Amino acid sequence: MLTAGQYHQLPIQRITTVGAFLEDGGDGLLLPKRFVPKGAMVGDTLEVFVYHDSEDRLIATTQRPFAVVGDIAYLEAVSSGLKGAFLDWGLMKDLFVPKSKQLMGMRVGGKYLVKLYIDEQTGRVAATEKFEHTLSNEELTVKEKDAVQLIVYRRTPLGYVVIINNVHTGLLHHGDVFRELEVGDKL
Fold this sequence. Notes:
Blueprint: E1 6-15, E2 19-22, E3 29-32, E4 45-52, E5 58-61, E6 72-80, E7 84-88, E8 95-98, E9 111-118, E10 125-128, E11 150-155, E12 159-164, E13 168-173
Antiparallel strand pairs: 1-2, 1-4, 2-3, 4-5, 6-7, 6-9, 7-8, 9-10, 11-12, 12-13
């Protein structure tokens, strides 16, 4: 079964004037014509990102979003309204952040640290600023000297609180940092 907000390797089932239909166990998942690689043929396997279009249908793209479900990313707000805000996540369709998932409201042009998730009611990819409860150091998935991915979360008097591999938190002491860091920087 295909899941929104993730990459999938799918073979081309058929090619039409609107694009390529990829094998999804049913009628096929549309990859719009503008995203079909030149020279692609039936049977070729493509890596695609799957999400919902504006009509709530699953659709594929070869565009690469800035983040996938489960990731924490620093994204810019491109619009804001009564029900929520939309962030640029690198796709033609912007990412929704419900008002209830915002900390203090979002303004156009502002950048926000958010976690991507699947909304239980709609099944669509959405984002939340309220993700701190998902970070835990109780059961560490890393050990000393492991290479890790860090995202700067906030500055404190001791240094910078960082998110480790989208799962844990840690602290980079000021004495261990040799360049200026900003919230959202990836290390």
